Amino acid sequence: MEEPSKFEQYVYKNASVYHYMKISLVLENGNKYITDAQFKQLIICGLKDLYGEVGASFPFDLLKFDQNKLTGILRVYNSGLVKLWSALTLLGTYQNEACAFRVMQVSPFLLALSGNSRELQFGDQLTL
Amino acid sequence: MVRFKSRYLLCEVCVPDRSSLQLLEDRSIYNTLRAAVKRAHGDYGSALFNIGVIVKYLNAHTGVVLIRSRKKHYRLIWSALSFITCLENRGQMVQCFLNCLHVGGTIRTCQKFLVKYNRQQLHRMLPDCKTDAEKQEVRKAILSCSLSNVRDEEADEDGSDDDDDDDKET
């Protein structure tokens, strides 16, 4: 009789120190020319309004920024995720113009942001 | 069993010269603290300040302030205390800083701490006394420091008996 195959399962409670967010900025009057530094400054202003100096000093990084579509990937520590997300929700204006941040994906792993089942395109092989 | 828990921050206002302390009002401390919390913690901080915080007691002679806040957010208020650099007092700006001495759950525990603290301060004052009469007065003040004196005056909200004893505190 062959030996039963070993089965090991690892369960991580808090696997990652960071959380990654994929966000996009939607402006009322179409796209403007915004550099990555201005994008980050806008988010910092939102944090500062809601959480003050202490909140605005919380470190987060803008890992990728697409200037044409105004989308980006943010990285933030786990303890600051709620603050960052709530500040993005309540941010309403950019240079006296109405704007909104859409949060498309949040994940503790960066790899998960590379694929999104909402935007999945089925290829020809699946149709019979 | 189920009750509102609060934290009382016992603070001391430290100023370079004591005479500017005389006309201090609790409203000026409240307004300064509110501005400091708004700057340090934004809209979230000022909302928390509005619901829970009140200046319960202020002694203009010794500069002792008792600030009450909710148990969940007392650390936020405490952190904003260090950002206060000057108090506005009847149109004049007084340079000062707020030093937190004790955090208590009730007013009585803060009073007990204040009695012990004042007794220690008086002990420290004793070697600095120049004349014998001053020494006698300080010794008498130390002996009269007790919480039982406080209980009679609790109804008047005048604070403890001991606060009046260290009016020569440097």
UniProtKB/TrEMBL annotation, chain A:
Keyword vocabulary terms for this entry: tRNA processing
Similarity comment text for this entry: Belongs to the eukaryotic/archaeal RNase P protein component 2 family.
One function term, GO molecular function aspect: ribonuclease P RNA binding
Alphabetized Gene3D superfamilies for the sequence: Ribonuclease P, Pop5 subunit (3.30.70.3250)
InterPro entries in UniProt: Pop5/Rpp14/Rnp2-like, Rnp2-like_sf
Name assigned to this protein: Ribonuclease P/MRP 14 subunit
GO biological process terms, semicolon-separated: tRNA 5'-leader removal
SUPFAM superfamilies (alphabetical): Rnp2-like
Pfam families cross-referenced by the UniProt entry: RNase_P_Rpp14 (PF01900)
Any one GO cellular component localisation term in the record: nucleolus
Taxonomy, superkingdom: Eukaryota
UniProtKB/TrEMBL annotation, chain B:
Subcellular location: Nucleus, Nucleolus
Sequence ranges of Acidic residues compositional bias: 153-170
SUPFAM superfamilies linked: Rnp2-like
A molecular-function term among this protein's GO annotations: ribonuclease P RNA binding
Coiled coil: none
Gene Ontology BP term (one): rRNA processing
Keywords from the named record: Nucleus, rRNA processing, tRNA processing
Keyword Cell wall biogenesis/degradation: no
Annotated segments matching region Disordered: 149-170
Annotated Pfam families: RNase_P_Rpp14
GO CC entries: nucleolus; ribonuclease P complex
Primary location: nucleus
Purpose: Component of ribonuclease P, a protein complex that generates mature tRNA molecules by cleaving their 5'-ends.
Similarity remark: Belongs to the eukaryotic/archaeal RNase P protein component 2 family.
Protein name: Ribonuclease P/MRP protein subunit POP5
Protein's organism: Cyprinus carpio carpio
Lineage start: Eukaryota, Metazoa, Chordata, Craniata, Vertebrata
